[in-house]
Amino acid sequence: MLKLDCVSAFVCVAEAGSITAAAQRLGLAKSVVSERLAELEQTLGAQLVQRTTRRSTLTENGRIFLARARRLLSDAEDAVAELAQQGSELIGPLRLSAPVSFGALRLAEPLFAFMRQHPRIELSLELDDHFVDPAADGFDAVVRHGPVLDRRLIAHRLASSMRHLVASPDYLAEAGPVACLEDLSVHRAILYSRRGADWRFEGPDGATVIRPRTALRLNNGLMMRSAALAGLGIALLPSFMVHEDLTAGRLVVIDAGAAPQGAELFVAHPLDRATSSKIKALVTHLRAAFGNPSFWEHTTRQQPRG
């Protein structure tokens, strides 16, 4: 029979990179961690960790088992939390992942308010612009900006977030205004390097694709906003990121005669988290905090005409 303390020791070794580091994290003797790891390998009948004097690396069996080991520990923690839960009080760990820009700009305040309402929740948040697999990576839920196509996940809509072509007034004064999509070809573009370089627009005849001239490629939306504020070119950015800049006039929305394709914000979680009261409460809280329509959709300042 699998023992949870043995599974915990294995996960900690995998994450820490060595038995010594895992022992320090767990507050146990190195010999105890080594014994628990050996007991788990004996129970499973497979070597999980290749040990060296300085570092421990996962075997192929270890890499396969790691995702399930994390899920076993997560399920155990959730079971303890549910048994301990009394009345409407929410208790126990809640592990979230979110995109870097959205997490930094829009999640902090509502999450801190959520924690004040539910002080017995143990929240862990990791910001990552890669598409995280919540089941494999040990998360209860992930925030996604864009469609959730994985059928293993249940998605709850949080808010809308239009995308805008934006630039600084100084850049447009120097480079000239944009009256139509064709005008974009002579402007400098600040592009997101994790996606294709195309800009897509909705029109009466369907989608139109523009391949702008690249001035700068960045893998972070906040850096793209900073580049636009610095007058380096035009960027296609979500409204949640530029709301205050548009209100203050530091950036303006470029009307090229067609609307950029928008996106929705979701909280997505594995099927086995469908009954989680913590996730349900979080989704309800975030929806109320963002509003419908979301507060960042209310103000846009257009480029000057003429």
Q: Can you give a write-up of this model?
A:
There is one protein chain. This protein is α/β, with parallel strands linked by helices and 306 residues long. The chain has three domains: 4-81, Orthogonal Bundle (Arc Repressor Mutant, subunit A); 94-161 and 273-294, D-Maltodextrin-Binding Protein, domain 2 (3-Layer(aba) Sandwich); 163-261, 3-Layer(aba) Sandwich (D-Maltodextrin-Binding Protein, domain 2). The protein has ten helices and 15 strands. The strands form four sheets. It has a five-stranded mixed β-sheet with strand order 4-3-5-15-6. The longest helix has 25 residues, at 60-84.
Overview in brief:
Belongs to the LysR transcriptional regulatory family. With 306 residues, the chain is an alpha/beta fold.
Let me know the number of strands.
Answer: 15
Q: Give the ordered list of helices and strands.
A: HHHEEHEHEHEEEHEEEEHEHEEEH
* N- and C-termini, Cα separation: 76 Å
Q: What structural category do the secondary elements indicate?
A: alpha/beta
Q: How many domains comprise the coordinates?
A: 3
Largest sheet: 5 strands, mixed
CATH-level-2 architecture of the largest domain = 3-Layer(aba) Sandwich
Radius of gyration: 24 Å
Helix content: 40-55%
- Strands of the largest sheet, in order across it? 4-3-5-15-6
InterPro entries: LysR-type_TF_proteobact-type, LysR_HTH_N, LysR_subst-bd, WH-like_DNA-bd_sf, WH_DNA-bd_sf
Pfam family, one: HTH_1
GO molecular function: DNA-binding transcription factor activity; sequence-specific DNA binding
Protein name: LysR family transcriptional regulator
